[in-house]
Amino acid sequence: MRCVIAGCHFDLTASEVQAAMKGIAPEPVNGPSVTIGRRTYPVKQVGAVLTRQDRRDFSAAEVTIALTRLGFTCASAPVAPPQPTAPADPWPMS
Q1: Source organism's superkingdom (predicted)?
Q2: Span 54-65, mean pLDDT?
Q3: CB 42 within 8 A of CB 33
Q4: What ranges in the chain are assigned the alpha helix state H?
Q5: Which uninterrupted H or E stretch holds 68?
Q6: 11-47 confidence digits (pLDDT tens)
Q7: How many alpha carbons fall within 13 Å on the CB side of residue 79?
Q8: Residue 7: predicted pLDDT
């Protein structure tokens, strides 16, 4: 698939993206993310690996659009784990 990231044209396939990210440890996710295989990466990290450009040169939206079109699952914000709630007091004092 042909896409434009930071004004540059790239021909990408899903298998090329998977191969490029193989063996790369995901950074902590604080914003938009993409799931590649069983790992979740920040979109900007994937964009930097694929384009070999500085992360400031492209937007997360550009990379998200390209990865979504390739069939990857993208999320706009990290999913926060559910917070444990305190159990209700079974013997409330009256």
Answers
A1: Bacteria
A2: 94
A3: yes
A4: 14-21, 43-51, 60-69
A5: helix 60-69
A6: 999 999 999 999 999 999 999 999 999 999 999 999 9
A7: 8
A8: 87
**Residue 93 three-state SS:** coil
Pairwise CA distance, residues 88 & 44, whole Å: 43
What is residue 20's three-state secondary structure?
helix
Do residues 51 and 5 touch, judged by C-beta distance below 8 A? yes
Q: Are 26 and 41 in contact (CB under 8 A)?
A: yes
Please give the pLDDT value at position 18: 96
Q: Is-contact 16 28, C-beta < 8 A?
A: no
75 — phi, psi (to 5°)? Answer: -125, 145
Q: Return the H-helix or E-strand segment holding 74.
A: strand 73-75
Q: 47 by DSSP, 3-state: which?
A: helix
How many CB atoms sit inside 10 A of residue 42's CB? Answer: 21
Give the up-direction half-sphere exposure of residue 71: CA atoms within 13 A in the CB hemisphere: 9
